[in-house]
Amino acid sequence: MQTRPLAPNSVIGILGGGQLARMLSLAAAPLGYKTCIYCPEDNGPAIDVCHSHIVGDYGDQAKLKQFAAKVDVITYEFENIPASTIAFLNQLITVSPNLKSLQTSQDRLVEKDYLNSVGATTAPYANIATKQDLDNAVRKLGLPAILKTRTMGYDGKGQVGIKTMADMQQAYDLVSNNSSGLDKPNCILEGFINFDLEISVIIARDAAGNVAIFEPSENAHKNHILNSSTIPAQISPDIRAKACQLASDIIHGLDYVGVLGVETFITTNGNTPIIINEIAPRVHNSGHWTQDACYISQFEQHIRAIANLPLGSVARHSDVVMHNLIGDGVALASDYAKQANAKIHLYGKQEIKTGRKMGHVNLLFPLDSLIKT
Ligand SMILES: Nc1ncnc2c1ncn2[C@@H]1O[C@H](COP(=O)(O)OP(=O)(O)O)[C@@H](O)[C@H]1O
Ligand SMILES: [Mg+2]
Hints:
The chain is α+β, with helices and mostly antiparallel strands. It has eleven helices and 17 strands. Strands 9, 10, 11, 12, 13, 14, 15, 16 and 17 form a nine-stranded antiparallel β-sheet that branches. A four-stranded parallel β-sheet has the order 3-2-1-4, sandwiched between helices. It has a four-stranded antiparallel β-sheet with strand order 5-8-6-7, sandwiched between helices.
């Protein structure tokens, strides 16, 4: 692993051309870096703002080779890049986060096994290959429960909530018809966690093993999609410290370089107040608030980590509420534009679709003004 800082004017390769790659590109520029985007589409949020791009499938080795030759380090904006793509590129050039981190987070079963192996508590879970497995797991874990595809799920896609036995048919259908393309058992049943709130911890680690942790955010979902993040979260100092310690244990165990999102449930009705839901090996939607409430954003932090620059400060100068602008909700941007404390981020997507993340807005408030007593 190279540990010298990447020289100015170096090119950072990013797999994926969506809004996360866009905001990574925008954060790379002030540090003097250019980005080259690799993705299957010939347009999109990141392509509007990058230095160069290559259109190619993730399995196209000739194009991937061309990409590796153009860049000085590679990262990715989402965990559903095929592991074989990262393994191939890694023979040619450093890819951060590493293959183990990608493989761990792209399969919910591997992920849960890993989280438990480093001492984190997860929802109880069972691997589901057949309808019989599902019957057995429901008997063991009880209801309510959630059946999820092991791979390729996001924004609640590939999930069936099982409240009562009446929901079993839909669950059987997911077991037999899920399209993740895996030639192996590919669902997981999770016991339902009756959480008080959801927080996430955005943590960064550099190649030398230093970590920097942003203040946890309190997240609210609507239709399984993140709707808002509020900072600070209404959690005790003890919970905050424990959540941060768990995030550290998780990131060190992966020998991870870059920014990692750790989605966490906080509950008062059980023996364990902190239950880790899932990890994302990338910058995370619940960390977008850092763009305007911190001196260094999660995007700059990720670029710093993979470029071997020192990790930046995680200090926060404002309280903040981040609202996602989803589907038609993007129309609210013009109202927010009249508000002095609103910082708007639009992703430049041409087509508005239901549930599509079109942008977000960070509403800034004086430090400590959002703390409820
Ligand atoms: N075991 C669970 N118990 C209770 N709620 C859950 C559970 N798993 C997921 N959820 C809810 O569904 C949301 C999406 O699930 P998640 O596993 O994070 O999938 P995705 O990959 O779509 O983000 C979570 O943020 C949480 O609100
Ligand atoms: Mg999630």
